[in-house]
Amino acid sequence: MIVQFLFIFGITYLGELISTLFSLQIPGTILGMLIMFFLLSTGIIKVKQIEKAANILLLNMAIFFLPPGIKLVDSLDILKGNWLKLILIAVTTTLITMVVTGKVVDFFIRRKK
């Protein structure tokens, strides 16, 4: 299973490396996800090759939100006057994300049939 973690983190690092070397505006983590998507969708790697490590990461995803949450609490004085705007932005972007995700999943389901 350590090999699976190394592979996942290696792909993420590759995305960071590409982003840095070519001074791209796309974050390296996003590039890493795109690389992983390409590798999985083309069958270069199989889901079974990374499944256990990916499931562990998904089960512990809440841990990854702790540092940003703590930083947010540290910045409460800056955010005091902007709560309504922040809530509006959060709701709007959540809805946009849900719609786009639904459309993409629908597209791939139709494409598979």
**Main β sheet profile:** none
How many domains, as an integer? 2
Radius of gyration: 18 Å
Terminus-to-terminus distance? 33 Å
Overall pLDDT confidence:
92
Give the proportion of residues in helices.
over 70%
How much of the sequence lies in strands comes to under 5%
Uncertain runs: none
Total beta-strand segments: 0
Number of helical runs?
Answer: 7
In sequence order, what are the helices and strands, one letter per element? HHHHHHH
The rough form would be described as: globular
Give the class from helix and strand content and strand pairing: mainly alpha
Organism: Ilyobacter polytropus (strain ATCC 51220 / DSM 2926 / LMG 16218 / CuHBu1)
Main location: membrane
Pfam families: LrgA
Subcellular location: Cell membrane
Describe the fold and architecture.
With 113 residues, the protein is mostly helical. The protein folds into 2 domains: 1-64, no CATH class; 66-113. The chain contains 7 helices and no strands. It has helices at residues 2-21, 28-42, 51-59, 61-64, 66-74, 76-79, 83-112. The longest helix is centred in the last third of the chain and has 30 residues, at 83-112. The chain is globular and about 50 Å long. It is found in: Cell membrane. The chain crosses the membrane at residues 20-41, 53-70, 82-105. It is a multi-pass membrane protein. Keywords: Cell membrane, Membrane, Plasmid, Transmembrane, Transmembrane helix.
